[in-house]
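Reviewer comment 2.1 asked that we show a complete input and output for one of the modelled complexes. We chose the dihydroflavine-adenine dinucleotide case, as it is the one discussed in the main text.
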Amino acid sequence: ATGDRVPALVIGSGYGGAVTALRLTQAGIPVTMVEMGQNWNAPGSDGKVFCNMIKPDGRSFWFRSKTDMPTDYFSGGSIDKAIPSDAGVLASEHFANMRVYQGRGVGGGSLVNGGMAVTPQQSYFQEILPSVDAGQMYSTYFPRANQMLGVNSVDQSWWSSAACYQFARVGKKTAEASGYKTEFIPNVYDFNYMKQEQANTAPRSALAQEVIFGNNYGKKSLDKTYLAAAAATGKLSISTLHTVTKVAPAATGGGYTVQMTQNDVNGNVVAQKTVTADRVFFAAGSVGTSKLLVSMKAQGALPNLPSAVGAGWGNNGNVMVARANQGWDPTGTLQSAIPTLGINNWADPNGPVFAEIAPFPSGIETWVSLYLAITKNPNRGTFTFDQSSGASVLNWQSGWTQPSIDAAKRVFDTINKKQGTIYRTDLFGVYKTWGDDFCYHPLGGCVLGQATDNYGRLPGYPGLYVIDGSLIPGSTGVNPFVTITALAERNIENIIANDLH
Ligand code: FDA
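Response of the prediction step:
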């Protein structure tokens, strides 16, 4: 409530925030978590908490009157449809030349993501974050993150005949027949539960076209892992539908005043609140944290933040593309929405690519193989504060995704040539091959060791910390949440040991 003074306030409940909440509460420090999205635990009129991808409703998108699907076209027309504009679980935030998909709610991106839990190659981690002791990361913090997140692996013998992974077997066969290596990728979706879905002995989630708008069953999102453990300490309180708008040094008594707006699910303002916190942890995600800090610096609330705040943003080299398989290679009418395989061509010096073999679960046979390629794109965007609109904006130029397209094109041109197949040009627009104007993996904007010290402390403002994907300089070479979690584990351990005892 307004006027409260709290020891630790965490902005955002995604990976960085959830790790922070658990480790602080375990150290005996009460945590106040502020999350702009909903707590997704109450069923709607259909008895389900989340809607699926085929019938999106007001629970799908964050305040949009029309869906904004990543693959928003099919066979010559847009598939986006009208929906009620509510506090849905998936945000599609539009900047010039780049829209960024993000989770909204208790659990952040873990609610909407595909659950792929990938530990990056140690050599690449060392390259992107040279100031971090990689040996310690790989012996201690990556294993800790994987264990806490509940990562598991698919039973490969089940996989090799499960109807729901026909699409993945086609993706594997066509890649390997074209000279590329594929590998199984661990996941936080419970594969034993999925076996029951396939056998029709449990309600379907991954097998019922559920993923980007949440999974009703099966997925170990953060509310079931880190945040549940933090809540079990009795020291965690979460305010949902509260958006932090300002952080500034408190006038008296030290610490920081934090201003926030409480909304209802329809977007109406319920209350404006101000609390004081001894310590504030920015865990609003790469976009959320960068936007807040850039505007606090420009508007004079935190004027001494380093100039590196807002810089070093990247899309993890994301680009999507789809192929049309041969008629004898159906990808299946039943597709698990949870991916299990990646094409690993990262070692290619001409252009590293790690491509997720993604599902395209439409319920009908499409012969489509869809891929989310992660590439090594050197371009970096910058967040700045636009005085005229009063908003933080991202500078990302339209040509900056081209290196990602070039790298992915080498792989998929080769597969098409060897298989005698072609690209689908109807999924990302009318005659548009590459899904290059959006991303799932925003990273950077408040880079470790540049905008912060080597553990996320904001220089000049004791008690302010950054602890989310904004610390990672634009790329991690694989799907990012394991890296974000492990880095948060490392940083919070140091912060608790040195700043809180
Ligand atoms: P994250 O975005 O998780 O959390 C930030 C939280 O802060 C959000 O809940 C937000 O609502 C809240 N917030 C923001 N601003 C706020 C404010 N001002 N006040 C209060 N709250 C605020 N990764 C991966 O490794 N494997 C995968 O398979 C996938 N798949 C995937 C699919 C899709 C559709 C998406 C959108 C993303 C993925 N990802 C993924 C990416 C992954 O989900 C992402 O990298 C992490 O969630 C980022 O974690 P953070 O802790 O940085 O922020």
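The pocket of dihydroflavine-adenine dinucleotide is lined by residues 11-16, 34-37, 101-105, 108-109, 112-116, 212, 243-244, 283-286, 288, 292, 440-441, 468-469, 479-481, 484 (CB under 6 Å). We note this here for comparison with the apo prediction described in Section 3.2.
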